[in-house]
Design brief:
The structure holds 2 protein chains of 2 kinds. Chain A is mainly alpha-helical. Helices cover about 70% and strands about 5% of the residues of chain A. The radius of gyration of chain A is 22 Å and the shape is globular. Chain B is globular and about 70 Å long. Classes of the chains: A mainly alpha, B mainly alpha.
Chain lengths: ~525, ~500
C-alpha cells in the first residue's frame, strides 16, 4: 500500500484547514504552498512508474502504467461492510491511478495551483476563497482516483458545495442565479447516477454472487439480461448506461443539458471558470470513458449512434452559439460545449459498430482522452486571458475593444496563441486530439464526422473574429491608458502554453501513458459487442 | 410467580434514570446555582449508561423479564444508548436557554429525563399495554415542555402565547393519537386474544392476515396512525410545524429526536415482533410506501417556503421520517418475512439523524441566544459574525441534505440501498426518494447560501457559549468521524436488527 494517492487527495484538505487558521497576511501563500506541493507530488505519479520500469516500460508497451484492473498506483483499505439479512453492501476505500487517471490528476493539480496564482488579486474574503478552492481540489482529486463506484459518487458530490459558494460569493452580477442553476443541474444528474450505481451493483451481485463496486470487478464482469420497465423489456446494460450517463452528460455538458454552463462560466470569477472548464467538465468526460463504456459496454454500444449524433450536434451547436456572443467569457463557454462534443464523438466511435475497426476505435478513444487534457489546458489559458483583460478593463464585451495589441503586446501574443491552439493549429495540442478524432471516427461514423468537421471553419471564424475585433485594427482611444499583463499574470499563461506546445509537438508520451488503460476498455467493448451480435 | 432480582436487573437502566430524574427534581428545591442541576443531569446519565453497558456485556440476549413484558435484546440496547445520547445532547444544548428564558431548570431536566425513561421502555417492551403506558410516559412530559415558555423571549413578544398554544395543541392531538393507537391495539387484542407480542404473532401465523381480514387491516392502520403522530409522518404530521415553532427551542430539539426515535422503536417492535409485517399481504407495504412518499414530498416541498427556521426544521424532520419510512417499507415488503437490512438501515439512519439534529439545533439556539432571531433570514451573513458557528451549522445542514463526506450521505445511501436490494417496486420508491433528496437541496443549501453569501444585518461578532460550542463541535466531529469509522455503528445496527427480525424465525 502506497500512501501517495491518499496524500494527494487529502493534502489540499489539510491546506484548507491551514488556510482557515493562518494569519490574514499569508493566506494566499499558504494556499499556494499546499497546491504547489500537491502539484509537485503529482508528478511522481508519472515519474515513479517510469523510474520503476527503467524509463522504457511504456515505450516497450509492456503494461506501462497499468489498467483499471492492475493500476500503477493503488491505495486501498476496507471501509464499509454491511452484511445484514440478504443485503451485502461493500464499499471500500480504494484509490487507484492508471494512465487515464494519472494525467487527469496531474492536470487537476496543475490547474488548481495556477488557479491560486491566478487569484492573487482577490481581496474579497480571501481566506474563505482559498479554503473553498482547496476543498474543491480534494473533491476532484478523489473523483479521478476513486476506484470504487460508491467512493466515486461520494467524491463526485464533494465538489458541489465549494463550487456553489465560489460562484455565489465571488461571481458576477447574476451570480445567485448561476450558482443555483449549477447546483441543481449537477445534483439532479447525480441522483440518477446513484440510481445507476445501485442498479449495476445489485444486478451484477445477483448474477455473480459477488457484491463489489470495485472498478476492477466491474470492468471484468458484465451485467447480462433485460430489465422490465413498465412492461417493456430493455437491455439492463442500456438502462445502467443511461442512468449513469445522465449524470455525466450534465457535467460534460451535452446539449440539451448544457444551459447551466454558459451562466456558470460567465458569472464565476476567472480562476473558478478555469477550474470549471479545465477540470469539472473533465469529470463528466472521465466518468463517461472510465465508467459508462467500460462497465456497461453493451449498453453503450446500443446507444452509440445517438451518442455520435449528440456529439456532432454539440460540436456544431456550441460553435454556432459562440459565433454570436458579445461577451468573451460566454463565447469561450460555448466553445467549451463545442470542444467537449469531440470527446463525445470520439467515445461514440469507440463503442460504435464494426468489429474490425478496433484500431480506429482505440485511436478515437485516445483522441477523446487527449482532447480532455488539451481542452483543459487551452480553455484554462483563454479564461485566464479574459480574466487579465477584465481585471484591467472591467468589461468583457468584444465590441468595446479594438487595437489593444498596441498597448498590450504580451497579452495579445498569448491570447492569439491560445486561440490558435483552440482552433486546432497543427503543432499545438488541440490539433493532435481533433486530428485523431476526425481521422478515426470517419471510419465508423462518416456523416457525423463531416458535419462535425464543418464546425472547424466556424471555430476558426469565431476565435479569429474575436481576436481581430478586440486586439487588432485601429486602437480604440478609450483604452489608450490600459496596462499590459504583469509577470504574475503571465506566469500561469506561459506555463499552460508550454504544456500545450509540448503535447502538440510530441504527444507520444501522452499516448503511451494512456494506451494500456484505453486498450483494456476497447477490448471490453469489442468483447461484449461480439457477444451482442452473436 | 413473583418479580425476581433478574427482572429488576433488566430494568436497572430505567430505574437509574428515574432516580436521576427524582434527584434533579429534589435538588431543584435546595440548590441555588442552577448550573449544578445541568451538571448533575449530564453526569448522572453515566449511571444508566453503565447499567446498559453491563447488561450488554453480560450473557446472551434476548432476555426477558416481568413475565415477558420486558424484552431486553440488542435492538433495545441500541435504542437505550441512543436515548441516553439524546439526553446528554439536550442538556448541553439547553444549558443557556433554560437559564435565560425558562427559569425552571429543574423541572425542564426532570421532565426530559422522565420522558427518556418512557422512550427506553417503548423500545424494550413487548406487550401492548406496557408499550401504551411507556408511550404516555414519553408524551406527557413533552406536552408540558411544549408549553413551558411562560415569559416571552425578549425581541419576540408573542413567543409565550405561542408556547402555550403549542402545549394545548400537543395535548389535544397527542390524546387523539393515543386514542387511535389504543383502538388499534384493542382490535388486535380482539382478533388474537393476547396483548403479548409473541403470542399475537403466533396467533396471527395460524389465523392468517389476508386482505379479507378487515379487522386486522383496521388494526394495522390505527396502530400505524397512532405511532405516525409520534414520528410525524404525513398525513399525521399537522401538529409538528406549530408545535416545533411554539415550543422552547431545546424542547423542539427534544421532540424532533426523542419522540421520533421512540416512535420508530415502538412502531417497528410492534409490527415486526407482533408478526403484523410477516403475516400481512401487499396492502400494508402499499400503506407505508404511500406514507413515505407523501412525507418526503410534502416535507421537502413545504420546507422550501418556510421563513421560520424551526418550522423549516419541522418540515425537514417530516421529510427525514419519510426517508426512514422507505427503510420501513423495505422491511415490510416481502410477505412472510421482514427484511433485516431495512431494519438495520433504519437504526443507523436514526443514530446519525439524532447526532446531526442535535448539532443543527445547537446552532439555531446559539444564534437565538445571541440575537433573539429564529427566522431563516436571521442566518444572513452568519459567517461574518461567527465563522465557527457558521461552518458548524452549515455542515450539520449539509449532512441532513446528504452531501458527502458528511455522515448523512452515508446513512441515506444505506437506507436507500437496503430498500433497493429487495427488488420489485422498491427501486421506484428509492428513485422517488432520490428525487426528493434533490428537492431538499433547495432549503438546506438555501440556508447555507444565506450563511455564507448574504450580507449580514449588522457587522458584529456573536458570542457562542461554551456549552453550545461543545455540543455543536462534538456533533460536527461525530458526523465527519462517523463517515470514516462507520463500521461499528453498522455492526451494532445489524445486531439490533437481527435480534428483532429473527424473533419469530419468520425471516426470508
Amino acid at each position: 500500500m502506497s500512501w501517495l494517492l491518499t496524500i494527494l487527495v487529502f493534502l489540499p484538505t489539510v491546506g484548507a484547514l491551514a488556510v482557515m487558521v493562518a494569519p490574514q497576511g499569508v493566506v494566499k501563500w499558504v494556499a499556494a504552498v499546499f497546491t504547489g506541493v500537491t502539484f509537485l507530488l503529482s508528478f511522481w505519479l508519472y515519474i515513479g512508474p517510469l523510474v520503476h520500469m527503467g524509463f522504457l516500460g511504456p515505450l516497450n508497451n509492456t503494461g506501462g502504467f497499468g489498467t483499471v484492473m492492475s493500476p500503477a498506483w493503488m491505495d486501498a483499505s476496507p471501509w464499509i461492510h454491511f452484511t445484514v439479512g440478504s443485503l451485502q453492501l461493500n464499499i471500500d476505500y480504494r484509490l487507484g491511478a492508471d494512465g487515464l487517471s494519472i494525467f487527469m490528476l496531474i492536470l487537476n493539480a496543475m490547474l488548481s495551483f495556477l488557479a491560486v496564482i491566478g487569484s492573487w488579486h482577490i481581496d474579497k474574503r480571501p481566506r474563505e476563497y482559498m479554503a473553498l478552492l482547496l476543498i474543491l481540489e480534494t473533491g476532484v482529486m478523489g473523483v479521478f482516483c476513486a476506484f470504487d463506484l460508491y467512493l466515486f459518487w461520494l467524491f463526485w458530490e464533494v465538489e458541489l458545495i465549494p463550487m456553489f459558494l465560489l460562484i455565489a460569493i465571488w461571481g458576477g452580477r447574476r451570480r445567485e442565479y448561476a450558482a443555483w442553476k449549477f447546483v441543481l443541474y449537477t445534483i439532479f444528474g447525480s441522483a440518477f447516477m446513484l440510481g445507476g450505481i445501485f442498479l449495476i451493483y445489485f444486478m451484477l451481485g445477483g448474477q455473480t454472487g459477488i457484491y463489489s463496486a470495485s472498478f476492477a470487478f466491474l470492468a471484468s464482469h458484465q451485467v447480462a439480461g433485460n430489465l422490465l420497465v413498465g412492461g417493456a423489456a430493455i437491455s439492463a446494460q442500456l438502462a445502467i448506461f443511461l442512468l449513469l450517463y445522465l449524470g455525466f452528460a450534465i457535467k460534460i455538458p451535452m446539449v440539451p443539458f448544457h444551459t447551466w454552463l454558459p451562466d456558470a462560466h460567465t458569472e464565476a470569477p476567472t480562476a473558478v471558470s478555469v477550474l470549471l472548464a479545465g477540470i469539472l467538465l473533465k469529470m463528466g468526460a472521465y466518468g463517461l470513458i472510465r465508467i459508462c463504456i467500460d462497465f456497461a459496454p453493451a449498453g453503450a454500444h446500443l446507444f452509440a449512434l445517438p451518442l455520435a449524433i449528440l456529439g456532432a450536434v454539440n460540436i456544431l451547436y456550441g460553435a454556432g452559439c459562440s459565433l454570436v456572443q458579445q461577451d468573451m467569457k460566454r463565447l469561450i463557454a460555448y466553445s467549451s460545449v463545442s470542444h467537449m462534443g469531440f470527446v463525445i464523438l470520439g467515445v461514440a466511435a469507440a463503442v460504435g459498430p464494426g468489429a474490425t475497426n478496433a484500431a480506429f476505435k482505440e485511436a478515437a478513444l485516445t483522441g477523446a482522452a487527449i482532447q480532455m487534457f488539451s481542452h483543459g489546458a487551452i480553455t484554462g489559458m483563454l479564461f485566464f486571458c479574459v480574466g487579465v483583460l477584465y481585471e484591467k478593463a472591467h468589461i468583457r464585451d468584444i465590441d468595446v475593444f479594438g487595437g489593444l495589441q498596441a498597448r498590450m503586446p504580451r497579452l495579445t501574443w498569448i491570447y492569439t496563441f491560445a486561440a490558435m491552439a483552440s482552433l486546432g493549429l497543427p503543432g499545438l495540442s488541440g490539433f493532435v486530439a481533433e486530428y485523431l478524432i476526425y481521422t478515426s471516427v470517419y471510419a465508423i461514423y462518416p456523416a457525423q464526422t463531416i458535419v462535425a468537421a464543418s464546425a472547424m471553419i466556424i471555430t476558426a471564424g469565431y476565435l479569429l473574429w474575436m481576436i481581430k475585433r478586440s486586439f487588432y485594427g485601429p486602437l480604440n482611444p478609450h483604452w489608450s491608458g490600459i496596462a499590459d499583463a504583469s509577470i504574475l499574470e503571465m506566469a500561469p499563461l506561459v506555463m499552460l502554453g508550454v504544456v500545450v506546445l509540448i503535447v502538440g509537438i510530441y504527444p507520444g508520451w501522452l499516448v503511451d501513458l494512456l494506451r494500456p488503460s484505453l486498450h483494456q476498455i476497447i477490448q471490453n467493448v469489442n468483447g461484449s459487442v461480439a457477444g451482442l451480435h452473436r | 410467580m413473583s418479580i425476581t432480582a433478574t427482572d429488576l436487573w433488566l430494568l436497572s437502566p430505567e430505574i437509574a434514570l428515574t432516580l436521576l430524574a427524582l434527584l434533579v427534581l429534589s435538588l431543584d428545591f435546595v440548590v441555588k446555582r442552577k448550573a449544578i442541576l445541568s451538571i448533575v443531569s449530564i453526569l448522572g446519565l453515566i449511571a444508566p449508561a453503565a447499567f446498559v453497558t453491563q447488561i450488554g456485556l453480560t450473557g446472551s440476549r434476548p432476555l426477558s423479564g416481568f413475565y415477558g413484558m420486558l424484552r431486553v435484546d440488542n435492538y433495545a440496547l441500541f435504542f437505550d444508548y441512543l436515548f441516553l445520547l439524546i439526553g446528554a445532547g439536550v442538556v448541553l444544548v439547553s444549558y443557556d436557554y433554560v437559564r435565560l428564558y425558562l427559569k425552571n431548570t429543574g423541572e425542564f431536566y426532570a421532565l426530559m429525563l422522565f420522558s427518556l425513561v418512557g422512550a427506553m421502555m417503548m423500545a424494550s417492551s413487548s406487550e401492548l399495554i406496557t408499550i401504551y403506558i411507556a408511550l404516555e410516559l414519553t408524551s406527557f412530559p413533552l406536552y408540558i415542555m411544549a408549553g413551558m415558555l411562560r415569559n416571552s423571549v425578549p425581541g419576540d413578544p408573542g413567543s409565550a402565547s405561542r408556547s402555550s398554544e403549542a402545549g394545548i395543541k400537543y395535548v389535544l392531538l397527542g390524546a387523539m393519537s393515543s386514542a387511535i393507537l389504543l383502538y388499534g391495539m384493542a382490535l388486535l387484542y380482539g382478533s388474537t386474544g393476547s396483548t403479548d407480542l409473541g403470542e399475537i404473532a403466533t396467533a396471527l401465523t395460524s389465523i392468517g392476515h389476508g386482505p379479507n381480514s378487515l379487522v386486522l387491516l383496521l388494526a394495522d392502520v390505527f396502530i400505524f396512525a397512532g405511532f405516525g403522530f409520534k414520528i410525524s409522518a404525513v398525513p399525521f404530521h399537522m401538529w409538528a410545524p406549530d408545535i416545533y415553532e411554539g415550543a422552547p427551542t431545546p424542547g423542539t430539539l427534544f421532540f424532533s429526536v426523542a419522540s421520533k426515535t421512540a416512535g420508530f422503536a415502538a412502531l417497528i417492535r410492534v409490527f415486526v415482533d407482533g408478526g403484523l409485517v410477516q403475516t400481512s399481504s401487499f396492502y400494508l407495504w402499499g400503506l407505508i410506501a404511500i406514507a413515505a412518499i407523501l412525507s418526503m414530498t410534502l416535507g421537502n416541498v413545504v420546507a422550501i417556503v418556510q421563513s421560520d427556521i424551526k418550522r423549516m426544521m419541522a418540515y425537514s424532520s417530516i421529510a427525514q421520517a419519510g426517508y426512514i419510512l422507505v427503510g420501513f417499507a423495505a422491511l415490510a415488503y416481502r410477505p412472510g418475512g421482514a427484511s433485516q437490512a431495512g431494519n438495520a438501515a433504519i437504526l443507523v439512519f436514526l443514530a446519525i439523524y439524532v447526532i446531526t439534529n442535535i448539532g443543527a439545533f445547537a446552532g439555531i439556539i446559539a444564534l437565538a441566544n445571541a440575537t433573539g432571531g429564529e427566522r431563516v433570514r436571521d442566518f444572513d451573513g452568519l459567517v461574518r459574525r461567527s465563522p465557527t458557528l457558521a461552518v458548524g451549522m452549515a455542515l450539520c445542514l449539509l449532512s441532513l441534505a446528504g452531501i458527502p463526506p458528511l455522515a448523512g450521505a452515508v446513512s441515506k445511501i444505506i437506507i436507500f440501498i437496503s430498500a433497493w436490494q429487495d427488488g420489485g417496486l422498491l427501486p421506484w420508491l428509492v428513485i422517488i426518494a432520490l428525487i426528493n433528496s434533490v428537492i431538499s437541496i433547495a432549503y438546506y443549501v438555501g440556508v447555507v447560501y444565506r450563511i455564507f453569501v448574504s450580507p449580514p444585518p449588522r457587522e458584529d461578532r456573536l458570542r457562542v457559549s461554551p456549552a453550545l460550542s461543545v455540543a455543536l463541535g462534538l456533533s460536527v466531529v461525530a458526523i465527519i468521524a462517523t463517515t470514516i469509522f462507520i463500521q461499528p455503528l453498522l455492526s451494532a445496527g445489524g445486531l439490533g436488527a437481527n435480534d428483532l427480525v429473527g424473533f419469530l424465525g419468520l425471516t426470508h
